[in-house]
């Protein structure tokens, strides 16, 4: 079926200046990728000079920052307003857990250098700071500050030591109260004590019988010739029934 066409198509010659051929050449140039990128390839071969402060570069950087900020906050903007059930961040379990984890992580990072270097510190024993710390510890130590009486730091037969012993004995509460030891267990009557005598004197002062004397107990003899007595006798005779 195609034998005659295959044999004839190799013998056909078309002039190159016909409209059909010219149109086909133009179409080939339009759809050619190499011809389409020829100017770009030539420009690339010549190199280019693009400064960092050029306006297109600044514009591209600003656009990139805006797009990056938008993408970074896109999830947050979508979830904004959807938090329910927690009035504060402390009441939210996820936020509390995140804060706790961040705190632990920060504490671990903060102490990492110390834990790495604490076993590698070498301080000379004769350093000024070490000596000062030892002397300070000696001064504030209660063991070195107190010396009990049996730990004598001087000869026991010195005059000042003997005098100090006597002063301690005089100030001692046991020695001060030793003269009262023989009174323990001895019977004692309260009669004649200060409190009893005081109570008796107060009772005498408050006693109505001793403070006032009744008139019928007083020894009194009236004068018979006194004017009021004579007048009383006359009145008695006048009022007498006899």
Automatic annotation (TrEMBL):
An annotated GO BP: cardiac muscle thin filament assembly
Stored InterPro entries: NEBU/NEBL, Nebulin-like, Nebulin_repeat
Entry superkingdom: Eukaryota
Keywords: Actin-binding, Repeat
GO MF term set: actin filament binding
GO cellular component: Z disc
SMART domains given in the database record: NEBU
Protein name (Swiss-Prot/TrEMBL): NEBU protein
Organism expressing this protein natively: Ibidorhyncha struthersii
């Amino acid at each position: 079926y195609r034998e005659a066409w295959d044999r004839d198509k190799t013998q056909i010659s078309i002039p190159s200046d016909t409209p059909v051929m010219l149109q086909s050449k133009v179409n080939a140039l339009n759809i050619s990728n190499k011809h389409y990128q020829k100017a770009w390839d030539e420009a690339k071969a010549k190199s280019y000079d693009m400064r960092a402060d050029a306006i297109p570069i600044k514009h591209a950087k600003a656009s990139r920052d805006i797009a990056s900020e938008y993408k970074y906050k896109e999830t947050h903007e979508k979830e904004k307003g959807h938090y329910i059930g927690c009035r504060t961040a402390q009441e939210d379990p996820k936020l509390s857990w995140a804060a706790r984890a961040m705190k632990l992580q920060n504490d671990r990072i903060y102490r990492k250098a110390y834990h790495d270097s604490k076993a590698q510190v070498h301080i000379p024993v004769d350093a000024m700071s070490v000596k000062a710390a030892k002397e300070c510890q000696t001064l504030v130590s209660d063991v070195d500050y107190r010396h009990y009486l049996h730990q004598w730091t001087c000869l026991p037969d010195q005059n000042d030591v003997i005098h100090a012993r006597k002063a301690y004995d005089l100030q001692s509460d046991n020695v001060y109260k030793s003269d009262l030891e023989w009174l323990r267990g001895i019977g004692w009557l309260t009669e004649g004590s200060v409190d009893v005598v005081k109570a008796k004197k107060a009772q005498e002062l408050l006693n109505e019988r001793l403070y006032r004397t009744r008139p019928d107990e007083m020894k009194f003899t009236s004068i018979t010739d006194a004017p009021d007595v004579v007048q009383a006798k006359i009145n008695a005779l006048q009022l007498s029934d006899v």
